[in-house]
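2024-03-11 09:14:02 DEBUG pipeline.ingest accepted 1 chain
2024-03-11 09:14:02 DEBUG pipeline.ingest length=520
2024-03-11 09:14:03 DEBUG pipeline.predict start
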Amino acid sequence: MTAAVRPRTPRPGRDRLARLLPAPPGADRADPASAPRVAVVGGGIAGLTAATAMAERGVRVTLYEREAVLGGRLAGWSTRLADGSTVTMSRGFHAFFRQYYNLRALLRRTDPALSRLTALPDYPLRHAGGAHDGFRRVPRTPPFSALAFAALSGSFRAGDLPRMNARAALPLLDVRVPAVYDRLDRLSAQDFLDAIRFPAAARHLAFEVFSRSFFADPRLLSAAEMALMFHIYFLGSAEGLLFDVPSEPFPGALWDPLAGQLTRLGAELRTATGVEAVTALPGGGFRVTVDGTEDCCDGVVLATDPGALRALVARSPGLGDGPWRECMGRLRTAPPFLVSRLWLDQPVRTDRPGFLGTAGYGPLDNVSVLNHWEGESARWAARTGGSVVELHAYALPDDTDRDKQQHELLTQLHRVYPETRSARLVDARHEWRADCPLFPVGGYGDRPAVRTPTPGVVVAGDTVRTELPVALMERAATSGFLAANALLGGWGLRGHPLWTVPERGRGALLRWVAGRAGTG
């Protein structure tokens, strides 16, 4: 009898050099009578991905989320405004780039055509000094993307190029993981940019706006992480720098449908439930202590933010070995950030972009006009004649005066969009958070891998070392699939395929040029 041939995995985007990691082999589904039990700690992207991947193979999954809602940093919840409207608040804007192959694969579980995402026409950047850039007209295929960006950008001038240190920039042409960390992890992003001698305006717009998307000051951020970002979004991928956004708030667009799918697959979702400790049992398996009760399972996925992971490991003395626990104890959290969402009684001009990255406007890092792309906000604006605007400020000092900072963001909004000066605040919500991972200079070795010294315990999240060219939300989703695959393989169950952008520099010529950085 001829063995069944599995259908070819379709390419996830337009990039013909995207890399496929085939699904690890195994049985398609666990025997219901002996299916393993897994505890997933954390209901963000990583935890939901791992839970979905295992539930699809018949594993009995219990997911624990300490918050009342799913989604982690993309969670949403209802709030009532001063005008009586009930709306959804969240922790702020997120861009779903087209090279987020594995995150998009997760979303396709409930939305095969990704119809709940909508494209924004540009990724505009604006500096207070007058420079502005965007990516709508930039070709998507490297190296033409970089060349066209420099040619079209108002922040590059002809006289700037001869002053740049081209040799210092050569590592960007051939970024590989983990080699890029061996080469650049002990250098800060700022020092790397200093060495290249980018013109100031281009530096603010082309690099620092991106580096701050890691919620860190470029002086603290590893240059390796920024170089990887440059590879993923610019020189390594042909997907370009345009992106999609959910057309409705996160719960309805993303997580409610996925929660329904998980429930249909037999998973148990326990929100508002914090895990106190995980204990490895002498005879095998694990005990998860939850609100004073104990649940037993065969495997555990730790998919929390770095602070919660550090604390949970500290409360679970039997997990891992000494060196691993020391690394977990050194995990750092990025500085606080602020998301201010404002409901205004007057409209923002219709030609304002849905999202704008900013530099030079004090602490203001970006502005979103939600009613230009999100359905719920658009309906509120249409009913009231107003607008919904969101402001972000990253990497703020720990001792920031919150009231002053919130007022300062409003002041900077008036500079960016002067028509908002006469608008009255119908209501406002301010989210202060400090739970994102920090990728500090020299910190790569402390970050956890998916597998741990304790067989049956795996880690997922955007903190994790995956040995793949992924970052931010895509690293969270990818690590969730990797964590699931690690456990599934131990039980003889088939894993899930993964895609990434190319794992090295694009084209032999660019790789040869990059190699010249280490010679002469």
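2024-03-11 09:14:41 DEBUG pipeline.report Residues 1-6 have pLDDT under 50 and may be disordered.
2024-03-11 09:14:41 DEBUG pipeline.predict end
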